[in-house]
Write a structure and sequence with these properties.
Layout (H helix, E strand, L loop, with lengths): L4 E4 L2 E4 L1 E2 L1 H18 L5 E5 L5 E5 L1 E6 L2 E7 L13 E8 L16 E6 L2 E2 L1 E2 L15 H18 L4 E7 L3 H5 L4 H4 L1 E2 L1 E2 L7 E2 L4 H18 L3 E5 L2 H11 L7 E2 L4 H10 L4 E7 H7 L14 H11 L4 H9 L3 H11 L2 H20 L4 E8 L3 E5 L3 H10 L6
Parallel strand pairs: 9-12, 10-14, 16-17, 16-18, 18-19
Antiparallel strand pairs: 1-2, 3-15, 4-5, 6-7, 7-8, 8-12, 11-13, 19-20
Helix pairs in contact: 1-2, 5-7, 8-12, 9-10, 9-11, 9-12, 10-11
Length: 394
């Protein structure tokens, strides 16, 4: 039983362990049973984070020259779609040329890792693993290799082994992950950098943004359309004719998205956002979650001041409970268009400042009631460039 907790938002949340940890533990057990012939019901695994796991081994199958077994994934209190999956590994003696058990000539055991049923395979450029490889990331591969070598050393084995990771329900569950968008076909990915799942981890979400960005930048030759949330997806599809399959969501992490784009040498990003989030961007707020900053009505009132609105209008905006109602005040007073011009220009300024001029940044701002409220000077041209660029990437 793994008992590790974190406290977030005054809540005590249970940690879990990654698919990579499950695969490494299953590989360690399968290798040990292959060498000794004895059943192993539990293994210890030291994670890269430095936390020791004691994991139960399930579904043991023995055959001529192989053993397979599994570990049940536990995501703790994280809303993880892979929670409860059985992550299985088959370890077998690698066949030498002509068949038969591999001769033990190498002083160091060799471990060959691949994916089987329910483990996705990479079909697009830009991911951590090359096209054609199983979607088993670098750290899990290293963990699996070290776990198998630990069993090999304990038993004095110095030959070669084939390790196949498979997930019986992986293909079905993968439909609920980002994998279809990333061009990972046939199953889930075997992931994890620390071996531990932290509930509601911001770092995990931010990492997923970078992974998706790498793929989409290649598809569109360095250009990207970023939409923070679902409102933007609907608006972009219905009002702008955008194929949202090739757009990217960034949630509240606008600043991190710009930073990643600079690191990945993007040519340009068009942000399309609802006024409720992007009014914050007009004040230089790069994480738009309400727990970090609000100031929506204050920023809307500031834009109204620059647009020339009188004091009664400003006071009414500051009392408005939502940005939509603030827009209604501006529209009725005749200041909506000039105020939105201010908001758009300021949002564009802060995006350019965050990028340091490393690439083009443009922005479109909309509301569900008033439609497109404003766009920076190069936004329409960048959108057209993005729509007409489609690089072959398979």
């Amino acid at each position: 039983m793994f008992e590790e907790y974190v406290v977030k938002g005054n809540r005590r949340l249970k940690c879990g362990y990654t698919t990579g940890s499950c695969a490494a533990a299953a590989a360690k057990a399968a290798a040990g049973m292959l060498f000794t012939g004895q059943e192993i019901s539990q293994v210890e695994l030291m994670t890269p984070k430095g936390l020791l796991l004691r994991l139960d081994i399930r579904d043991i199958v023995r055959g001529e020259g192989f053993v397979s077994c599994g570990v049940r994934k536990d995501g703790g209190d994280d809303p993880d779609v892979t929670d409860g999956l059985l992550i299985c590994v088959r370890v077998e003696y690698a066949a030498k040329e002509g068949g038969g058990k591999q001769e033990q000539k190498s002083p160091v055991p060799q471990v060959f890792i691949d994916g089987g049923e329910g483990v996705g395979r990479v079909t697009l450029l830009g991911l951590e693993q090359p096209v054609g490889e199983a979607a088993i990331n670098r750290v899990p591969r290293q963990m699996i290799t070290e776990a198998v070598l630990e069993s090999s050393r304990a038993c004095g084995f110095v030959g070669s082994l084939k390790v196949t990771v498979f997930v019986p329900e992986g293909e079905e569950r993968s439909a609920r992950t980002f994998n279809p968008r990333l061009g990972i076909k046939g199953g889930i990915s075997i992931l994890g950098t620390t071996g531990i799942v932290e509930p509601m981890s911001e770092s995990a979400l931010i990492d997923s943004i970078k992974v998706e960005m790498k793929v989409l930048l290649k598809r569109k030759n360095g250009y990207l359309v970023v939409i923070p949330g679902n409102y933007g997806t609907v608006f972009s599809k219905n009002e702008l004719g955008i194929d949202t399959e090739y757009t990217m969501k960034c949630s509240n992490y606008i600043g991190e998205t710009v930073d990643f784009a600079a690191e990945l040498k993007a040519k340009g990003i068009l942000f399309i956002g609802h006024i409720g989030k992007f009014i914050k961007l007009s004040g230089g707020i790069m994480n738009t979650h309400s727990r970090n900053a609000d100031s929506r009505m204050e920023l809307l009132a500031a834009a109204a001041i620059k647009a020339g609105a009188p004091l009664p209008v400003l006071l009414e905006i500051l009392e408005a409970p939502t940005t939509d109602q603030g827009l209604e005040v501006l529209e009725e007073a005749g200041y909506l268009e000039p105020a939105m011009k201010v908001v758009t220009e300021r949002a564009g300024f802060y995006l350019k400042h965050r990028s340091g001029g490393a690439f083009e940044t443009e922005v479109m701002i909309f509301s569900n009631v008033y439609g497109l409220l404003g766009q920076t000077a190069g936004a329409a041209a960048m959108l057209e460039r993005w729509k007409t660029t489609d690089v072959a990437w398979e």
